Amino acid sequence: MTATRAIDTIGRDVGHALGAFALGVVLLAGFLWAAGFDISGALTALWQGAFGSWYALTSTTLVHATPLLLLGLAFTVGARAGALNIGMEGQFAAGAVAAVAVGVHAGTLPAIVAIPLVLGAGLIAGAAWIAVPVILRARFEITEVISTLLLNFVATAAVSYAVTGPLQEPSRIYPQSAPIARAARLPHFGAGSRLHAGFPIALLIAALLMIVFHRTRWGFRLRAVGSGARAAEIAGGIATTRVVAMALLWSGAIAGLGGAVEVSGVSYALFQNLSPGYGFTAIAVALLGRMRPALVVVAAIMFGALEAGSGAMQRDAAIPAVGIQVVEGVVIVAALIVAWRRPR
Amino acid sequence: MTASLIVAFGTASVRVTTPLLLAAIGEGIAERSGVINLGIEGGMLAGAFAAAVVATHDGTTAGVAAGAFAGILVAFAFGAIAIWGRTDQIISGMAVTLAATGLTGLLARRVWGVAGAGLSIPTMHLAAIPGLASIPILGPVFFDQPAITYVAYLMIPIAAWLLFRTRFGLEIRASGEGPTAAAACGVAVTRVRISAVVLGGLCSGVAGASLVLAQVGAFSEQMTAGRGFIAIAIVALGRWNPWGIAASALVFGAATESQFLFQAAGTTIPYQLFLVLPYLLALAVMALATRRHRGPAGLAQTF
Q: Does the pTM exceed 0.90?
Protein backbone atom coordinates (compact mmCIF):
# COMPACT_ATOMS: atom_id res chain seq x y z
CA MET A 1 0.00 0.00 0.00
CA THR A 2 1.45 3.35 -0.96
CA ALA A 3 1.66 6.16 1.56
CA THR A 4 -1.08 8.25 -0.05
CA ARG A 5 -3.47 5.30 -0.16
CA ALA A 6 -2.74 4.53 3.49
CA ILE A 7 -3.52 8.13 4.40
CA ASP A 8 -6.70 7.94 2.31
CA THR A 9 -7.83 4.82 4.20
CA ILE A 10 -7.11 6.33 7.60
CA GLY A 11 -8.83 9.54 6.56
CA ARG A 12 -11.89 7.60 5.46
CA ASP A 13 -12.00 5.57 8.68
CA VAL A 14 -11.66 8.65 10.85
CA GLY A 15 -14.31 10.34 8.71
CA HIS A 16 -16.68 7.41 9.24
CA ALA A 17 -16.03 7.48 12.97
CA LEU A 18 -16.63 11.22 13.23
CA GLY A 19 -19.76 10.93 11.10
CA ALA A 20 -21.19 8.13 13.24
CA PHE A 21 -20.37 10.08 16.37
CA ALA A 22 -21.94 13.30 15.06
CA LEU A 23 -25.07 11.38 14.06
CA GLY A 24 -25.34 10.05 17.60
CA VAL A 25 -25.08 13.52 19.13
CA VAL A 26 -27.59 14.97 16.64
CA LEU A 27 -30.08 12.23 17.42
CA LEU A 28 -29.56 12.76 21.17
CA ALA A 29 -30.33 16.45 20.62
CA GLY A 30 -33.46 15.42 18.71
CA PHE A 31 -34.65 13.14 21.51
CA LEU A 32 -33.89 15.78 24.13
CA TRP A 33 -35.89 18.29 22.11
CA ALA A 34 -38.79 15.88 21.64
CA ALA A 35 -38.81 15.09 25.36
CA GLY A 36 -38.84 18.80 26.16
CA PHE A 37 -35.36 19.19 27.67
CA ASP A 38 -33.19 22.30 27.20
CA ILE A 39 -30.92 21.26 24.30
CA SER A 40 -28.50 24.16 24.17
CA GLY A 41 -27.88 23.97 27.92
CA ALA A 42 -27.35 20.22 27.61
CA LEU A 43 -24.92 20.39 24.70
CA THR A 44 -22.98 23.27 26.26
CA ALA A 45 -22.60 21.27 29.47
CA LEU A 46 -21.59 18.22 27.42
CA TRP A 47 -18.86 20.16 25.60
CA GLN A 48 -17.62 22.04 28.67
CA GLY A 49 -17.48 18.85 30.71
CA ALA A 50 -15.43 17.08 28.06
CA PHE A 51 -13.13 19.66 26.46
CA GLY A 52 -13.91 22.95 28.22
CA SER A 53 -10.58 23.17 30.03
CA TRP A 54 -7.24 21.41 30.32
CA TYR A 55 -8.48 19.92 33.59
CA ALA A 56 -11.69 18.67 31.92
CA LEU A 57 -9.69 17.09 29.09
CA THR A 58 -7.03 15.35 31.16
CA SER A 59 -8.76 14.74 34.47
CA THR A 60 -12.17 13.69 33.21
CA THR A 61 -12.11 12.83 29.50
CA LEU A 62 -8.85 10.86 29.51
CA VAL A 63 -9.66 9.28 32.89
CA HIS A 64 -12.94 8.00 31.45
CA ALA A 65 -11.20 7.03 28.21
CA THR A 66 -8.78 4.71 30.04
CA PRO A 67 -11.18 1.88 30.96
CA LEU A 68 -12.98 2.32 27.62
CA LEU A 69 -9.68 1.93 25.78
CA LEU A 70 -8.69 -1.21 27.67
CA LEU A 71 -12.14 -2.75 27.22
CA GLY A 72 -12.28 -1.67 23.58
CA LEU A 73 -8.95 -3.43 23.01
CA ALA A 74 -10.27 -6.46 24.90
CA PHE A 75 -13.27 -6.67 22.55
CA THR A 76 -10.92 -6.17 19.59
CA VAL A 77 -8.76 -9.19 20.49
CA GLY A 78 -11.81 -11.46 20.53
CA ALA A 79 -13.49 -9.93 17.50
CA ARG A 80 -10.34 -10.20 15.39
CA ALA A 81 -10.61 -13.96 15.94
CA GLY A 82 -14.34 -13.88 15.19
CA ALA A 83 -15.52 -14.19 18.81
CA LEU A 84 -17.77 -11.60 20.45
CA ASN A 85 -17.05 -11.04 24.13
CA ILE A 86 -20.20 -9.33 25.46
CA GLY A 87 -19.19 -10.06 29.05
CA MET A 88 -16.53 -7.41 29.51
CA GLU A 89 -18.63 -5.78 32.21
CA GLY A 90 -18.29 -8.98 34.24
CA GLN A 91 -14.56 -9.44 33.58
CA PHE A 92 -14.00 -5.79 34.50
CA ALA A 93 -15.78 -6.42 37.83
CA ALA A 94 -13.83 -9.64 38.41
CA GLY A 95 -10.56 -7.78 37.78
CA ALA A 96 -11.59 -5.02 40.17
CA VAL A 97 -12.54 -7.47 42.94
CA ALA A 98 -9.25 -9.36 42.64
CA ALA A 99 -7.21 -6.15 42.49
CA VAL A 100 -8.88 -4.80 45.63
CA ALA A 101 -8.53 -8.13 47.44
CA VAL A 102 -4.78 -7.97 46.78
CA GLY A 103 -4.47 -4.18 47.11
CA VAL A 104 -5.87 -3.85 50.64
CA HIS A 105 -3.16 -6.23 51.89
CA ALA A 106 -0.26 -4.57 50.04
CA GLY A 107 0.58 -2.06 52.79
CA THR A 108 4.04 -3.40 53.61
CA LEU A 109 5.19 -3.84 50.01
CA PRO A 110 7.07 -1.27 47.93
CA ALA A 111 5.05 0.23 45.05
CA ILE A 112 7.24 -1.42 42.44
CA VAL A 113 6.03 -4.80 43.73
CA ALA A 114 2.52 -3.87 44.83
CA ILE A 115 1.35 -2.28 41.57
CA PRO A 116 2.34 -5.20 39.31
CA LEU A 117 0.76 -7.60 41.82
CA VAL A 118 -2.53 -5.70 41.79
CA LEU A 119 -2.61 -5.37 37.99
CA GLY A 120 -1.59 -9.01 37.59
CA ALA A 121 -4.44 -10.07 39.89
CA GLY A 122 -6.84 -8.17 37.62
CA LEU A 123 -5.45 -9.83 34.48
CA ILE A 124 -5.74 -13.32 35.94
CA ALA A 125 -9.20 -12.73 37.38
CA GLY A 126 -10.47 -11.42 34.03
CA ALA A 127 -9.12 -14.48 32.24
CA ALA A 128 -10.59 -16.76 34.92
CA TRP A 129 -14.00 -15.09 34.59
CA ILE A 130 -14.16 -15.79 30.86
CA ALA A 131 -12.81 -19.34 31.27
CA VAL A 132 -16.29 -20.86 31.62
CA PRO A 133 -17.59 -19.34 28.34
CA VAL A 134 -14.33 -20.42 26.67
CA ILE A 135 -14.84 -24.01 27.82
CA LEU A 136 -18.52 -23.93 26.86
CA ARG A 137 -17.57 -22.74 23.39
CA ALA A 138 -14.71 -25.18 22.89
CA ARG A 139 -16.45 -28.27 24.33
CA PHE A 140 -20.15 -27.69 23.68
CA GLU A 141 -20.14 -25.18 20.81
CA ILE A 142 -22.20 -22.75 22.87
CA THR A 143 -21.99 -19.21 21.59
CA GLU A 144 -19.88 -17.00 23.81
CA VAL A 145 -22.34 -14.19 23.13
CA ILE A 146 -24.97 -15.49 25.54
CA SER A 147 -22.66 -17.17 28.05
CA THR A 148 -20.43 -14.11 28.57
CA LEU A 149 -23.53 -11.92 28.75
CA LEU A 150 -25.18 -14.05 31.45
CA LEU A 151 -22.01 -13.98 33.56
CA ASN A 152 -22.29 -10.17 33.76
CA PHE A 153 -25.27 -10.57 36.07
CA VAL A 154 -23.39 -13.11 38.14
CA ALA A 155 -20.48 -10.66 38.46
CA THR A 156 -22.81 -7.88 39.61
CA ALA A 157 -24.15 -10.15 42.35
CA ALA A 158 -20.61 -11.26 43.26
CA VAL A 159 -19.51 -7.63 43.73
CA SER A 160 -22.62 -7.02 45.85
CA TYR A 161 -21.64 -10.01 47.99
CA ALA A 162 -17.99 -8.90 48.22
CA VAL A 163 -18.79 -5.37 49.39
CA THR A 164 -21.28 -6.54 52.01
CA GLY A 165 -19.30 -9.63 53.03
CA PRO A 166 -15.64 -10.62 52.78
CA LEU A 167 -14.30 -7.34 51.37
CA GLN A 168 -16.50 -4.90 53.32
CA GLU A 169 -14.70 -2.00 55.02
CA PRO A 170 -13.76 -2.67 58.68
CA SER A 171 -16.48 -0.55 60.30
CA ARG A 172 -19.09 -2.54 58.28
CA ILE A 173 -21.36 0.47 57.77
CA TYR A 174 -21.13 1.10 54.03
CA PRO A 175 -21.43 -1.46 51.24
CA GLN A 176 -17.90 -0.80 49.97
CA SER A 177 -14.41 -2.15 50.52
CA ALA A 178 -11.62 -0.64 52.56
CA PRO A 179 -9.32 1.58 50.46
CA ILE A 180 -6.36 -0.19 48.87
CA ALA A 181 -2.88 0.49 50.25
CA ARG A 182 -1.08 3.62 49.03
CA ALA A 183 1.70 1.47 47.61
CA ALA A 184 -0.81 -0.25 45.32
CA ARG A 185 -2.16 2.98 43.79
CA LEU A 186 -1.12 4.07 40.31
CA PRO A 187 0.92 7.32 40.23
CA HIS A 188 -0.78 10.48 38.95
CA PHE A 189 0.53 13.09 36.54
CA GLY A 190 1.28 15.91 38.96
CA ALA A 191 -0.60 17.19 41.96
CA GLY A 192 -4.25 18.08 41.36
CA SER A 193 -4.49 15.91 38.25
CA ARG A 194 -6.70 12.85 38.26
CA LEU A 195 -4.96 11.43 35.18
CA HIS A 196 -3.11 8.31 36.29
CA ALA A 197 -0.56 5.89 34.87
CA GLY A 198 -3.39 3.67 33.62
CA PHE A 199 -3.74 5.77 30.48
CA PRO A 200 -0.15 5.21 29.25
CA ILE A 201 -0.50 1.55 30.25
CA ALA A 202 -3.57 1.29 28.01
CA LEU A 203 -1.69 3.02 25.17
CA LEU A 204 1.13 0.50 25.64
CA ILE A 205 -1.33 -2.39 25.34
CA ALA A 206 -2.68 -0.83 22.11
CA ALA A 207 0.87 -0.65 20.71
CA LEU A 208 1.58 -4.24 21.78
CA LEU A 209 -1.59 -5.44 20.08
CA MET A 210 -0.58 -3.69 16.83
CA ILE A 211 2.67 -5.62 16.93
CA VAL A 212 0.98 -8.89 17.88
CA PHE A 213 -1.64 -8.64 15.12
CA HIS A 214 0.79 -7.82 12.33
CA ARG A 215 4.19 -9.14 13.37
CA THR A 216 3.60 -12.46 15.10
CA ARG A 217 2.55 -15.92 13.95
CA TRP A 218 -0.20 -16.04 16.58
CA GLY A 219 -1.54 -12.69 15.43
CA PHE A 220 -1.62 -13.90 11.85
CA ARG A 221 -3.50 -17.05 12.87
CA LEU A 222 -5.91 -14.99 14.90
CA ARG A 223 -6.74 -12.80 11.93
CA ALA A 224 -6.94 -15.80 9.60
CA VAL A 225 -9.49 -17.50 11.88
CA GLY A 226 -11.44 -14.27 12.21
CA SER A 227 -11.73 -13.73 8.49
CA GLY A 228 -12.77 -17.31 7.73
CA ALA A 229 -12.64 -20.06 10.34
CA ARG A 230 -13.25 -23.00 7.99
CA ALA A 231 -10.76 -21.78 5.41
CA ALA A 232 -8.15 -21.22 8.12
CA GLU A 233 -8.70 -24.73 9.42
CA ILE A 234 -8.83 -26.58 6.11
CA ALA A 235 -6.39 -24.63 3.95
CA GLY A 236 -4.24 -23.10 6.67
CA GLY A 237 -4.08 -26.09 8.98
CA ILE A 238 -4.81 -23.81 11.93
CA ALA A 239 -6.28 -25.24 15.14
CA THR A 240 -9.24 -22.87 15.09
CA THR A 241 -10.72 -23.85 18.45
CA ARG A 242 -7.45 -23.26 20.26
CA VAL A 243 -6.79 -19.90 18.58
CA VAL A 244 -10.29 -18.64 19.44
CA ALA A 245 -9.95 -19.90 23.03
CA MET A 246 -6.66 -18.05 23.46
CA ALA A 247 -8.09 -14.88 21.91
CA LEU A 248 -11.06 -14.96 24.31
CA LEU A 249 -8.82 -15.61 27.32
CA TRP A 250 -6.69 -12.59 26.40
CA SER A 251 -9.85 -10.59 25.81
CA GLY A 252 -11.02 -11.41 29.33
CA ALA A 253 -7.56 -10.74 30.77
CA ILE A 254 -7.35 -7.26 29.24
CA ALA A 255 -10.88 -6.48 30.44
CA GLY A 256 -9.87 -7.64 33.93
CA LEU A 257 -6.82 -5.40 33.74
CA GLY A 258 -9.26 -2.58 32.99
CA GLY A 259 -11.02 -3.25 36.29
CA ALA A 260 -7.71 -3.39 38.17
CA VAL A 261 -6.54 -0.12 36.60
CA GLU A 262 -9.81 1.56 37.57
CA VAL A 263 -9.56 0.62 41.26
CA SER A 264 -5.83 1.32 41.54
CA GLY A 265 -5.99 4.58 39.53
CA VAL A 266 -9.37 6.15 40.27
CA SER A 267 -11.65 4.70 42.95
CA TYR A 268 -9.08 3.01 45.31
CA ALA A 269 -11.92 0.90 46.62
CA LEU A 270 -14.60 -1.48 45.43
CA PHE A 271 -18.14 -0.17 45.03
CA GLN A 272 -21.34 -1.73 43.78
CA ASN A 273 -21.53 0.29 40.55
CA LEU A 274 -17.89 0.74 39.67
CA SER A 275 -18.60 0.67 35.93
CA PRO A 276 -21.40 2.78 34.44
CA GLY A 277 -21.74 0.25 31.64
CA TYR A 278 -18.16 0.61 30.32
CA GLY A 279 -18.31 -2.98 29.10
CA PHE A 280 -21.10 -2.17 26.66
CA THR A 281 -19.85 1.27 25.66
CA ALA A 282 -16.53 -0.35 24.80
CA ILE A 283 -18.24 -2.43 22.11
CA ALA A 284 -19.12 0.84 20.40
CA VAL A 285 -15.54 2.00 20.92
CA ALA A 286 -14.12 -1.11 19.27
CA LEU A 287 -16.59 -1.02 16.39
CA LEU A 288 -15.98 2.65 15.75
CA GLY A 289 -12.25 1.95 15.92
CA ARG A 290 -12.81 -0.75 13.30
CA MET A 291 -10.90 -3.27 15.45
CA ARG A 292 -7.65 -1.45 14.72
CA PRO A 293 -5.76 -0.58 17.94
CA ALA A 294 -4.66 2.88 16.80
CA LEU A 295 -8.19 3.86 15.79
CA VAL A 296 -9.59 2.29 18.97
CA VAL A 297 -7.44 4.81 20.89
CA VAL A 298 -9.13 7.68 19.01
CA ALA A 299 -12.59 6.18 19.52
CA ALA A 300 -11.94 5.63 23.24
CA ILE A 301 -11.04 9.30 23.68
CA MET A 302 -14.22 10.33 21.84
CA PHE A 303 -16.34 8.14 24.11
CA GLY A 304 -14.35 9.22 27.16
CA ALA A 305 -15.39 12.77 26.25
CA LEU A 306 -19.00 11.63 26.00
CA GLU A 307 -18.87 9.96 29.43
CA ALA A 308 -17.16 12.99 30.96
CA GLY A 309 -19.67 15.31 29.30
CA SER A 310 -22.66 13.23 30.38
CA GLY A 311 -21.64 13.73 34.00
CA ALA A 312 -21.51 17.49 33.49
CA MET A 313 -24.82 17.34 31.61
CA GLN A 314 -26.51 15.63 34.55
CA ARG A 315 -24.96 18.05 37.05
CA ASP A 316 -25.40 21.32 35.17
CA ALA A 317 -28.44 20.74 32.94
CA ALA A 318 -30.31 18.00 34.86
CA ILE A 319 -30.27 15.63 31.89
CA PRO A 320 -30.10 12.01 33.06
CA ALA A 321 -26.70 10.54 32.20
CA VAL A 322 -28.49 7.41 31.00
CA GLY A 323 -29.42 9.42 27.90
CA ILE A 324 -25.86 9.02 26.67
CA GLN A 325 -26.70 5.38 26.00
CA VAL A 326 -28.93 6.65 23.19
CA VAL A 327 -25.85 8.16 21.57
CA GLU A 328 -23.89 4.96 22.11
CA GLY A 329 -26.60 2.85 20.53
CA VAL A 330 -26.86 5.17 17.55
CA VAL A 331 -23.09 5.28 17.10
CA ILE A 332 -22.91 1.48 17.07
CA VAL A 333 -25.66 1.28 14.49
CA ALA A 334 -24.09 3.98 12.32
CA ALA A 335 -20.67 2.32 12.56
CA LEU A 336 -22.23 -1.03 11.65
CA ILE A 337 -24.10 0.30 8.65
CA VAL A 338 -21.24 2.42 7.33
CA ALA A 339 -18.36 0.06 7.82
CA TRP A 340 -19.45 -3.41 8.93
CA ARG A 341 -22.28 -4.18 6.55
CA ARG A 342 -22.13 -7.57 4.88
CA PRO A 343 -22.03 -7.34 1.11
CA ARG A 344 -24.85 -9.22 -0.57
CA MET B 1 -43.22 -28.46 53.20
CA THR B 2 -46.79 -27.44 53.93
CA ALA B 3 -49.47 -27.22 51.24
CA SER B 4 -49.85 -23.48 51.73
CA LEU B 5 -46.12 -22.98 51.21
CA ILE B 6 -46.24 -25.06 48.00
CA VAL B 7 -49.16 -23.00 46.74
CA ALA B 8 -47.44 -19.70 47.61
CA PHE B 9 -44.20 -20.82 45.92
CA GLY B 10 -46.02 -22.16 42.86
CA THR B 11 -48.17 -19.04 42.48
CA ALA B 12 -45.14 -16.77 42.71
CA SER B 13 -43.20 -18.95 40.25
CA VAL B 14 -45.97 -18.73 37.65
CA ARG B 15 -46.15 -14.96 38.16
CA VAL B 16 -42.39 -14.63 37.60
CA THR B 17 -42.59 -17.00 34.62
CA THR B 18 -45.22 -14.96 32.74
CA PRO B 19 -42.94 -12.23 31.25
CA LEU B 20 -40.17 -14.76 30.56
CA LEU B 21 -42.61 -17.05 28.77
CA LEU B 22 -44.09 -14.28 26.61
CA ALA B 23 -40.67 -12.92 25.63
CA ALA B 24 -39.24 -16.39 24.95
CA ILE B 25 -42.17 -17.49 22.77
CA GLY B 26 -41.70 -14.37 20.63
CA GLU B 27 -37.93 -14.78 20.48
CA GLY B 28 -38.45 -18.44 19.56
CA ILE B 29 -40.50 -17.43 16.51
CA ALA B 30 -37.83 -14.90 15.47
CA GLU B 31 -35.01 -17.43 15.93
CA ARG B 32 -36.90 -20.02 13.89
CA SER B 33 -36.72 -17.52 11.03
CA GLY B 34 -32.94 -17.29 11.49
CA VAL B 35 -32.74 -14.06 13.47
CA ILE B 36 -31.35 -13.84 17.00
CA ASN B 37 -32.66 -10.60 18.49
CA LEU B 38 -30.74 -9.34 21.52
CA GLY B 39 -32.91 -6.25 21.18
CA ILE B 40 -35.81 -8.00 22.97
CA GLU B 41 -34.27 -6.86 26.26
CA GLY B 42 -34.79 -3.32 24.96
CA GLY B 43 -38.24 -4.26 23.64
CA MET B 44 -39.27 -5.53 27.08
CA LEU B 45 -37.99 -2.36 28.72
CA ALA B 46 -39.81 -0.14 26.22
CA GLY B 47 -42.95 -2.24 26.67
CA ALA B 48 -42.69 -1.93 30.44
CA PHE B 49 -42.26 1.84 30.21
CA ALA B 50 -45.11 2.37 27.75
CA ALA B 51 -47.39 0.12 29.78
CA ALA B 52 -46.55 2.01 32.98
CA VAL B 53 -47.27 5.40 31.42
CA VAL B 54 -50.49 4.47 29.64
CA ALA B 55 -51.89 2.27 32.42
CA THR B 56 -51.63 5.17 34.88
CA HIS B 57 -54.22 7.12 32.88
CA ASP B 58 -56.18 4.58 30.89
CA GLY B 59 -56.06 1.36 32.86
CA THR B 60 -54.23 -1.91 32.52
CA THR B 61 -55.75 -3.14 29.24
CA ALA B 62 -54.68 0.01 27.43
CA GLY B 63 -51.30 -0.40 29.15
CA VAL B 64 -50.84 -3.85 27.65
CA ALA B 65 -51.74 -2.52 24.20
CA ALA B 66 -49.24 0.32 24.60
CA GLY B 67 -46.57 -2.17 25.70
CA ALA B 68 -47.25 -4.31 22.63
CA PHE B 69 -46.95 -1.26 20.38
CA ALA B 70 -43.65 -0.19 21.98
CA GLY B 71 -42.29 -3.72 21.58
CA ILE B 72 -43.24 -3.68 17.90
CA LEU B 73 -41.47 -0.33 17.39
CA VAL B 74 -38.23 -1.52 18.99
CA ALA B 75 -38.29 -4.81 17.06
CA PHE B 76 -38.94 -2.94 13.83
CA ALA B 77 -35.92 -0.72 14.48
CA PHE B 78 -33.83 -3.83 15.08
CA GLY B 79 -35.21 -5.53 11.98
CA ALA B 80 -34.51 -2.49 9.83
CA ILE B 81 -30.88 -2.38 11.01
CA ALA B 82 -30.06 -6.07 11.09
CA ILE B 83 -32.17 -7.47 8.26
CA TRP B 84 -32.58 -4.64 5.78
CA GLY B 85 -29.24 -3.10 6.77
CA ARG B 86 -27.58 -6.56 6.63
CA THR B 87 -25.46 -5.97 9.71
CA ASP B 88 -24.30 -8.31 12.46
CA GLN B 89 -27.44 -9.40 14.33
CA ILE B 90 -25.79 -9.70 17.70
CA ILE B 91 -24.16 -6.29 17.72
CA SER B 92 -27.28 -4.66 16.24
CA GLY B 93 -29.35 -6.22 18.99
CA MET B 94 -26.97 -4.93 21.66
CA ALA B 95 -27.13 -1.46 20.12
CA VAL B 96 -30.92 -1.46 20.08
CA THR B 97 -31.03 -2.56 23.72
CA LEU B 98 -28.55 0.18 24.68
CA ALA B 99 -30.56 2.83 22.85
CA ALA B 100 -33.84 1.63 24.37
CA THR B 101 -32.27 1.70 27.84
CA GLY B 102 -31.14 5.29 27.29
CA LEU B 103 -34.46 6.41 25.83
CA THR B 104 -36.61 4.89 28.54
CA GLY B 105 -34.26 6.35 31.16
CA LEU B 106 -34.60 9.83 29.66
CA LEU B 107 -38.35 9.60 29.28
CA ALA B 108 -38.82 8.13 32.76
CA ARG B 109 -37.15 11.21 34.23
CA ARG B 110 -39.43 13.36 32.13
CA VAL B 111 -42.55 11.59 33.30
CA TRP B 112 -41.78 10.86 36.95
CA GLY B 113 -39.15 13.49 37.78
CA VAL B 114 -35.67 13.11 39.22
CA ALA B 115 -36.05 9.60 40.61
CA GLY B 116 -37.10 8.28 37.20
CA ALA B 117 -39.37 5.70 38.80
CA GLY B 118 -43.13 5.29 38.56
CA LEU B 119 -44.28 3.92 41.88
CA SER B 120 -48.08 3.96 41.75
CA ILE B 121 -48.95 1.98 38.65
CA PRO B 122 -52.31 0.20 38.62
CA THR B 123 -51.92 -3.57 38.67
CA MET B 124 -54.04 -6.33 37.19
CA HIS B 125 -56.52 -8.11 39.39
CA LEU B 126 -56.46 -11.84 39.79
CA ALA B 127 -58.97 -13.48 37.49
CA ALA B 128 -59.71 -17.00 38.77
CA ILE B 129 -60.97 -19.37 36.08
CA PRO B 130 -64.21 -20.90 37.41
CA GLY B 131 -63.88 -24.64 37.94
CA LEU B 132 -60.19 -24.99 37.15
CA ALA B 133 -59.23 -22.70 40.03
CA SER B 134 -60.79 -25.04 42.57
CA ILE B 135 -58.50 -27.98 41.71
CA PRO B 136 -56.36 -28.55 44.81
CA ILE B 137 -52.85 -26.98 44.61
CA LEU B 138 -52.73 -26.77 40.78
CA GLY B 139 -55.86 -24.59 40.69
CA PRO B 140 -54.60 -21.65 42.73
CA VAL B 141 -51.09 -21.97 41.24
CA PHE B 142 -52.04 -21.98 37.55
CA PHE B 143 -55.63 -20.73 37.32
CA ASP B 144 -55.93 -17.93 39.87
CA GLN B 145 -53.62 -15.52 38.08
CA PRO B 146 -53.92 -12.16 36.26
CA ALA B 147 -55.49 -12.35 32.80
CA ILE B 148 -52.15 -11.72 31.09
CA THR B 149 -50.85 -15.04 32.40
CA TYR B 150 -53.67 -16.79 30.52
CA VAL B 151 -52.67 -14.81 27.42
CA ALA B 152 -49.18 -16.24 27.87
CA TYR B 153 -50.63 -19.77 28.14
CA LEU B 154 -52.64 -19.18 24.95
CA MET B 155 -49.53 -18.05 23.12
CA ILE B 156 -48.02 -21.54 23.47
CA PRO B 157 -50.49 -23.43 21.22
CA ILE B 158 -50.88 -20.40 18.94
CA ALA B 159 -47.13 -20.24 18.33
CA ALA B 160 -46.94 -24.01 17.84
CA TRP B 161 -49.83 -23.90 15.36
CA LEU B 162 -48.31 -20.92 13.55
CA LEU B 163 -44.87 -22.53 13.24
CA PHE B 164 -45.87 -26.10 12.38
CA ARG B 165 -49.34 -25.94 10.81
CA THR B 166 -49.36 -22.87 8.58
CA ARG B 167 -47.79 -21.86 5.30
CA PHE B 168 -46.24 -18.84 7.01
CA GLY B 169 -44.72 -21.12 9.66
CA LEU B 170 -43.18 -23.26 6.96
CA GLU B 171 -41.66 -20.17 5.38
CA ILE B 172 -40.33 -19.04 8.77
CA ARG B 173 -38.66 -22.39 9.40
CA ALA B 174 -37.29 -22.54 5.85
CA SER B 175 -35.81 -19.04 6.21
CA GLY B 176 -34.15 -20.15 9.42
CA GLU B 177 -32.77 -23.46 8.24
CA GLY B 178 -31.47 -22.42 4.83
CA PRO B 179 -32.17 -18.86 3.74
CA THR B 180 -30.48 -19.28 0.37
CA ALA B 181 -32.39 -22.45 -0.48
CA ALA B 182 -35.64 -20.93 0.80
CA ALA B 183 -35.12 -17.88 -1.39
CA ALA B 184 -34.46 -20.14 -4.39
CA CYS B 185 -37.83 -21.81 -3.70
CA GLY B 186 -39.58 -18.47 -3.82
CA VAL B 187 -39.74 -17.57 -0.13
CA ALA B 188 -39.35 -13.82 0.46
CA VAL B 189 -36.77 -14.44 3.19
CA THR B 190 -36.24 -10.80 4.14
CA ARG B 191 -39.96 -10.15 4.50
CA VAL B 192 -40.55 -13.37 6.44
CA ARG B 193 -37.71 -12.56 8.82
CA ILE B 194 -38.94 -9.00 9.42
CA SER B 195 -42.46 -10.31 10.11
CA ALA B 196 -41.16 -12.93 12.55
CA VAL B 197 -39.01 -10.36 14.34
CA VAL B 198 -41.91 -7.89 14.63
CA LEU B 199 -44.15 -10.66 15.97
CA GLY B 200 -41.43 -11.45 18.51
CA GLY B 201 -41.24 -7.75 19.35
CA LEU B 202 -44.97 -7.66 20.03
CA CYS B 203 -44.52 -10.52 22.49
CA SER B 204 -41.55 -8.79 24.18
CA GLY B 205 -43.59 -5.60 24.60
CA VAL B 206 -46.47 -7.54 26.20
CA ALA B 207 -43.88 -9.31 28.35
CA GLY B 208 -42.61 -5.94 29.58
CA ALA B 209 -46.18 -4.84 30.25
CA SER B 210 -46.83 -7.98 32.28
CA LEU B 211 -43.67 -7.32 34.30
CA VAL B 212 -44.97 -3.90 35.32
CA LEU B 213 -48.72 -4.53 35.54
CA ALA B 214 -48.87 -8.07 36.90
CA GLN B 215 -45.60 -8.60 38.77
CA VAL B 216 -43.81 -5.52 40.07
CA GLY B 217 -46.48 -2.80 40.02
CA ALA B 218 -43.86 -0.09 39.46
CA PHE B 219 -41.46 1.11 36.77
CA SER B 220 -37.78 1.85 37.34
CA GLU B 221 -34.86 2.40 35.00
CA GLN B 222 -33.35 -0.82 33.64
CA MET B 223 -35.93 -2.84 35.53
CA THR B 224 -35.87 -5.73 33.06
CA ALA B 225 -32.41 -6.63 34.43
CA GLY B 226 -31.46 -9.07 31.69
CA ARG B 227 -34.78 -10.95 31.52
CA GLY B 228 -34.69 -10.56 27.72
CA PHE B 229 -31.30 -12.24 27.62
CA ILE B 230 -32.55 -15.01 29.88
CA ALA B 231 -35.44 -15.48 27.45
CA ILE B 232 -32.86 -16.18 24.74
CA ALA B 233 -31.34 -18.91 26.90
CA ILE B 234 -34.85 -20.27 27.54
CA VAL B 235 -35.38 -20.57 23.78
CA ALA B 236 -32.23 -22.68 23.44
CA LEU B 237 -33.20 -24.84 26.43
CA GLY B 238 -36.70 -25.26 24.98
CA ARG B 239 -35.15 -26.44 21.71
CA TRP B 240 -36.84 -23.74 19.64
CA ASN B 241 -40.21 -25.42 20.25
CA PRO B 242 -43.09 -23.51 21.94
CA TRP B 243 -43.96 -26.39 24.30
CA GLY B 244 -40.31 -26.87 25.27
CA ILE B 245 -39.94 -23.12 25.70
CA ALA B 246 -42.95 -23.08 28.04
CA ALA B 247 -41.50 -25.87 30.17
CA SER B 248 -38.07 -24.25 30.42
CA ALA B 249 -39.56 -20.83 31.20
CA LEU B 250 -41.33 -22.43 34.16
CA VAL B 251 -38.01 -23.94 35.31
CA PHE B 252 -36.48 -20.46 35.26
CA GLY B 253 -39.43 -18.93 37.06
CA ALA B 254 -39.15 -21.55 39.78
CA ALA B 255 -35.37 -21.05 40.03
CA THR B 256 -35.91 -17.32 40.50
CA GLU B 257 -38.49 -17.92 43.19
CA SER B 258 -36.33 -20.49 45.02
CA GLN B 259 -35.04 -17.49 46.97
CA PHE B 260 -38.50 -17.34 48.53
CA LEU B 261 -38.36 -20.99 49.60
CA PHE B 262 -34.92 -20.71 51.14
CA GLN B 263 -35.89 -17.58 52.98
CA ALA B 264 -38.91 -19.40 54.34
CA ALA B 265 -36.56 -22.17 55.48
CA GLY B 266 -34.50 -19.59 57.39
CA THR B 267 -31.13 -20.29 55.72
CA THR B 268 -28.01 -18.17 56.25
CA ILE B 269 -26.71 -18.56 52.68
CA PRO B 270 -26.06 -15.06 51.19
CA TYR B 271 -29.08 -13.88 49.21
CA GLN B 272 -26.88 -12.99 46.22
CA LEU B 273 -26.48 -16.70 45.56
CA PHE B 274 -30.20 -16.95 44.84
CA LEU B 275 -30.07 -13.88 42.64
CA VAL B 276 -27.53 -15.56 40.36
CA LEU B 277 -29.29 -18.91 40.30
CA PRO B 278 -31.31 -18.27 37.10
CA TYR B 279 -28.20 -17.07 35.25
CA LEU B 280 -26.10 -20.05 36.36
CA LEU B 281 -28.98 -22.34 35.50
CA ALA B 282 -29.15 -20.77 32.03
CA LEU B 283 -25.46 -21.53 31.49
CA ALA B 284 -25.76 -25.09 32.75
CA VAL B 285 -28.80 -25.96 30.71
CA MET B 286 -27.35 -24.46 27.55
CA ALA B 287 -24.38 -26.77 27.96
CA LEU B 288 -26.69 -29.75 28.36
CA ALA B 289 -29.45 -28.79 25.94
CA THR B 290 -27.86 -27.41 22.81
CA ARG B 291 -25.54 -30.35 22.29
CA ARG B 292 -28.45 -32.68 21.75
CA HIS B 293 -30.44 -30.33 19.60
CA ARG B 294 -28.99 -27.68 17.37
CA GLY B 295 -30.78 -24.44 16.64
CA PRO B 296 -31.89 -23.42 13.16
CA ALA B 297 -28.93 -23.85 10.81
CA GLY B 298 -29.24 -20.31 9.46
CA LEU B 299 -29.44 -18.65 12.88
CA ALA B 300 -27.59 -15.31 13.05
CA GLN B 301 -26.66 -15.59 9.37
CA THR B 302 -27.03 -12.37 7.46
CA PHE B 303 -29.09 -12.79 4.35
A: no
